[in-house]
Amino acid sequence: MSAPHKEPPPSCAIVIFGANGDLTKRLIIPALYNLARAGNLPEQLALIGVDHNDRTSAQWQGALRDFLAQSLAKGGGGAIDDKLWNPIAEDMTFLKGDFEKDETYKQLGDLLADLDKKRNLGGNVLFYMAVADRFFGPIAGKLGEAGLVRQDQGGFRRLIVEKPFGHDLESAKALNACLLKYLKEEQIYRIDHFLGKETVQNIMALRFANGLFEPIWNRDRIDHVQITVAENIGIEGRGNFYEKTGALRDMVPNHLFQLVAMTAMEPPVSFDAEDIRAKKAEMFKAVHALTLGDVVRGQYDSGVVAGQQVAAYRKEENVAPDSNIETFVAMRVLIENWRWAGVPFYLRTGKRLAARSTEIAIRFKRAPYALFRETPVEELDADWLILRVQPDESIRLRFNAKRPGPAMALESVAMEFKYKDWFHQAPAVGYETLIYDCLIGDATLFQRADQVEAAWGVVEPVLKGWANTSPRHFPNYNAGSEGPSAANDLLARDGRSWRTIK
Ligand code: BG6
Fold first, then answer.
1. Domain co-membership, 145 together with 209
2. Same domain, residue pair 150 and 35
3. What domain count does the chain have?
């Protein structure tokens, strides 16, 4: 996580595997364009796209430019600014190649050597695997065998790996082993795009740049934490992917656990990547492995979302009519360390819920006794600190205040800081910081091998348990609702309840 835009990263080549894919056009290219606007692109940049289709470099460039133009227009961003686009487009080369054939890497090596000579790139190359996860291992292996990730000639060689990183503990370990055969840990940048969100990065600022919060950030003052990543969209035509994945794998060991880590980690001794990653890894070690009793799963039925009637999950394209895949998961996570012992973290995520809402809600303990006769202690609202990650990014503190009038009557009120009111934010797709950090070699926002494995380790017993037991009563929540009633029971058991999803 870089300091406010210092200087452009060193000149380099970026090689995108999956050049014709969705990620490239929707996120990588727009992020590069936004980096150009902020003056954060390398002085010399050569972009190479690798994919299996027939395309010329000019066609590739044209297709990306058209898509960018359309998205800018749709988002009210006006026309493409050629001053920003030209440095990206100047050396865009498309290489048709099979990701699993040696020939592709031979050609890639020659191309890189040529471009390096022509553009003086200092031997720096960033390889971006914007491809289906089955190709991660093969591409890394082929790059390794071709000697393309060796750093002994000067210049950096880095590899960005997208999600999903494995589908269980064993496959994550195998993938790590495969990457680490040819690359050193510091060359590997495992992306979790939640860490690219400003509001997620701000959790560290809130906690560690203020003297106010850290002293009360523990089991003495906090009753419990609720983390919600609710989506109102369905599976968006990704039936084939989702049928193999489900909500737990798709969202929990990665995105939700990153939110837990940001909230629960100990303060690092510095903002150095290794110090922060070490604290996160330590926190994951303290997380108690889940049991089936700690987790609830759900699947959406038909219902009404934002005024529209929508179909049940089992009726979605490429979904089995009797599918047992979960589209919702809620769980109780315990962190067994001095700070958090006895403070449950309740997590939930799901598709087709009442609203799109990602938040971390910290509930403080109640005032200890009923000083206010009119308001018995059990009726006093507890204080909440709510970090709203998206949409309407904000931080809100709810507390009790006296209602004006002769009686000492209380009401829960709120103080709120809204990002959009305070800061002028430049347009962003959420990948700008991640790509920039990778170009300057700052791994703070990327996951280390041990973190990924520890996170899979926590959910592993549930994955295994679910593989042997069919869920009962699927589908068990209506689209547009707040999820299955069993999720409410999970908290009710502890005398608590979820915040409304809105
Ligand atoms: C992705 C998941 O990683 O994150 C999707 O595969 C999910 O299923 C998405 O919709 C949510 O990300 P965001 O940034 O839209 O909140």
1. no
2. yes
3. 2
Expressed as residue numbers, the domain containing 56 is 12-162
Candidate of 26, 190, 193 to mutate for ligand 1, largest count of ligand atoms within 8 Å of Cβ: 193
C-alpha to C-alpha distance for 129 and 370, rounded to whole angstroms: 59
118/237 same-domain check: no
Q: Which residues line ligand 1 (CB under 6 A)?
A: 163, 193, 231, 250
Q: Please give the pLDDT value at position 372.
A: 61
Is 39 within a domain? Answer: yes
369 and 475 co-located in one domain = yes
DSSP string spanning 122-173?
TT-EEEEE-S-GGGHHHHHHHHHHTTTT--TTSS-EEEEE-S---SSHHHHH
Mapping DSSP to helix (H, G, I), strand (E, B) and coil, where does residue 248 land? helix
pTM over 0.85: yes
CA angle (231, 217, 483) in 5-degree steps? 20
* Distance spanning both ends of the chain, measured CA to CA: 31
Total count of residues recorded for the chain? 502
d(C-alpha 35, C-alpha 440), whole Å: 13
**Ligand 1 mean position, distance from CA 93 (Å):** 30
Measured in Å, residue 242 CA sits from the centre of ligand 1 at 12
Eight-class DSSP state of 374:
T
| Helix axis angle, 169-182 to 449-468, nearest 10° | 150
Catalytic status, residue 255: yes
CA of 209 to the centre of ligand 1 (A): 29
Q: What is the DSSP string of 26-70?
A: IIIHHHHHHHHHTT-S-SSEEEEEEESS---HHHHHHHHHHHHHH
Question: What residues in the chain have per-residue pLDDT under 70?
Answer: 1-6, 369-379
In a mutational test of the pocket of ligand 1, which residue from 165, 194, 249 has the highest number of ligand atoms less than 8 Å from its CB?
194
Q: Which of 255, 288, 424, 473 is catalytic?
A: 255
Q: What pLDDT is stored for residue 75 in this prediction?
A: 84
